[in-house]
Amino acid sequence: MNPRQGPWISAGFMRLIVIFVLLAIWEIGARLYADPLFLCPPSQAVAALPHIFGDPKVVNAIGVTIYELVTAFAISVVVGLAVGLAVGLHGFTKQAIMPVILMLYATPQAVILPLFVLSFGIGPEAKIAFGVSHGIFPVIVTTVAGVQNLRPHLLRAAHSMGASRWQVFTAIVFPHMIPSFFTGMRLGMTGVLLGVLLAELYVSTAGIGFYTRLFAESFSPPDLFALIAVLAAIAVTLNELCRMAERHFSRWNIG
Amino acid sequence: MNRGDAVIKVEGVSQAFGVEGDPRRVVALESATLDIARGELLSLIGPSGCGKSTLLNIIGGLATPSTGRVTIEGQPVRGPSPQKVAYVFQENTLFPWRTVIDNVKLGMAFQGVAKAERDDRARQSLEAVGLVDFSDHYPAQLSGGMKQRVQLARALGLQTEILLMDEPFAALDEQTRMVLGEDLSVLLARTGKTIIFVTHSLVEAVFLADRVAVLTARPGKIKKIIHIDEPHPRKSAFMTSPKLSALRNELYELLHDEIRKTLIQPTEAGAGA
Amino acid sequence: MRPKLQFGQRLIQLGVLIAILVAWWYFTLPGGINRLLLPPPAPVFSDFWVLLTTRSIWPDLLVTVHEWVVAVAIATVAGCTLGYLVSRSAYTVRVFDPLLAGLYSIPAILLFPLFLLFFGLGTGSKIAIGTTIAFFPVVLNTVAGLANVDKAYIRAAQSMGANDLQLFWSVMLPAAFPVVLTGLRLGCIIAFLAILGGETISSLAGLGHRIVSLAENMESSRMFANIIFAVLMAFVINGIVSFAEARGRRGFQ
């Protein structure tokens, strides 16, 4: 195999071709074979978008979801950072509490979702809480890991030069932590997305859960596809923003 | 088939990477021509990047030359010829998921050798390198020197006419190299194979080889071929003899300037030595 | 790690556990937290005991496990096959790998309403979501494993005269196996979580369904007992799958 032989279509362009071909297969297949009660071609889903956006209640539901995502994310990051620092900076607490945190991180939270709704009701609070419950653990864990990477001699050197605790924090701890913190943020966003969306879909009496149930039960695939596509686009955008932030700040990676 | 007939003919072989006229073009090897006699032990030596491993790969059919050709027993080389050529690599290529003896048997399995015969040959080869007691161990349990010996056993098990070795002892420490070198000389004298090996070590080249081909710095050309007139198997007395020292010094003089040249050459990833 | 420190930490962990239990008991004493929200430990443990000793949970447990096994099986076959096909050339890897990774970044739970529409409320929709979500780590790891086989092994096998088929069976597969196994483990675990999630959102049977029904009927202590059971189930599956991966990897490192 001659390594110099480059393909005559770039990989990126080929990818677009593949996506196009898959969409074409979906379109043609759905038109010819699909029962319109269950499946629709992508063109109909796209055509349903104005219908979705035209209904103010649907738009409101989407808006509320975005609000829940952003709020849950903010809380996860702030509280997660605080807890992560508190636990990670003190070796003894870290060794003792981390296993508990890791155990909580590993539990299948879907099964306590009904509990959240019972406690918080069917409004945004439950979804934000469930989102935080998913998003906070990666932030804590990566913050602790980031702090752990600090080599103790750096701290000692700073102390020997008479740095106050605050100065040590800002000059040494903080910059070391930033890269893993942003990784934690990205993972936290993934968790928040999972938590909030899971909670929203569960509560089928209001919010987007109501509309997904409505469109499914009334067998209108175009509306359902359109709504899901919008939510997916929001999710991908938020994920991508976090990933870009992470890439940018990983350049800070100090040894 | 006389001992002494040229079994491998290298004719005007060149290897270049990149497009002509491109300043980034690398000529690894230039117009290498040499004949290798049956039963001969030839060493290729030269500074880093001089194309010695490239030449070995071309002879073994693992690389295609840009110009020129190689023939083995009159047949042009077009790809790996496992019936005729066995290879011992510098890095570890023993498969970690197979035991030592299964590793030795693998090449034979590819060739379609019968099961019972595979077993016999594998045991013989491992005995020849002194590792038959480790047949059922895994490579991870062996030291670097032992792994190289197993690779050698694997190559021997294929019972080929020709053996190519690419810096087989490079990853080992000097003391292990000395001992393995002596064992190798005894072993190879017994088998009567035609052997080409690449090495960085001047002493190793003189101690083991019948002829040493010295290559220049990149683009690698064959600068000179030195004859070493000493019967096989080489005794350890040879190692400390003035004859060896003189030959080694001759090699040093030939190589010294070439090595200096490589220190100012940029390194190229992709154009292997 | 000095043993003394470890003992102290274990003590703390035990202490935390006991503190949680004591707090639980204390706050659910009469006049404390609403018993519907947080039942006291005693009825929860007795209900849990009932769960373990009777067969009442078996039908639902079987449904969930069945959904999980089928989802993992389909995801494994599809993922390994597609992973193999994609890994065949560096070009196909460059084309498809980012595509697959990109799809993986969409929260799969969003597809669940579509599966409900298509497969209905029964096991089909849960199997579908489990398969979909488990597919990605399997295919991505298969591609990574096969495409990143150490070139030295391939060269060695070729020099010994291996043809393409022999190369695949004797070199590529065993070399890729540990990585593929990790992908399978991840797939198994997230499939189970996704299935529980699906059952919680909408289902007719299964562990998740039980918990939701009990919640709707305000039977808090039984619900808590079932939640504890489901969590333990997840840990057991996690343990089994991790153990299998470690055993599988042992012969191939």
Write the layout of secondary structure elements.
The complex is a heterotrimer of chains A (255), B (273) and C (253).
Chain A lengths: L10 H23 L8 H13 L1 H34 L1 H16 L6 H8 L3 H25 L3 H9 L4 H38 L4 H11 L3 H29 L6
Chain B lengths: L5 E12 L8 E12 L3 E5 L6 H8 L7 E6 L2 E2 L8 E4 L11 H12 L3 H14 L15 H14 L4 E5 L7 H18 L2 E6 L2 H7 L2 E5 L6 E6 L8 H4 L2 H23 L9
Parallel strand pairs in B: 3-8, 3-9, 6-7, 7-8
Antiparallel strand pairs in B: 1-2, 1-4, 4-5, 9-10
Helix pairs in contact in B: 2-3, 2-4, 3-4, 6-8
Chain C lengths: L2 H25 L13 H13 L4 H29 L3 H15 L7 H8 L3 H25 L3 H9 L4 H38 L5 H10 L3 H31 L3
Helix pairs in contact in C: 2-10, 3-6, 3-8, 3-9, 4-6, 5-6, 6-8, 8-9, 8-10, 9-10
What is the name of the CATH architecture of chain C? Orthogonal Bundle
Give the low-confidence spans of chain A.
Answer: 1-5
Shape of chain A: globular
Mean pLDDT of chain C: 90
Low-confidence spans of chain C: pLDDT under 50, at least 5 residues? none
Order of helices and strands of chain A: HHHHHHHHHH
Task: Please name the fourth-level CATH homologous superfamily of chain A.
Answer: MetI-like
CATH class of chain C: Mainly Alpha
Q: How large, in whole angstroms, is the Cα Rg of chain A?
A: 23 Å
| Distance between the first and last residues' Cα of chain C | 27 Å
Tally of domains of chain C:
1
Question: How much of the residues of chain C is beta strand, in percent?
Answer: under 5%
Succession of helices and strands of chain C: HHHHHHHHHH
Task: Give the amount of beta strand of chain A, in percent.
Answer: under 5%
Rough outline of chain C? elongated
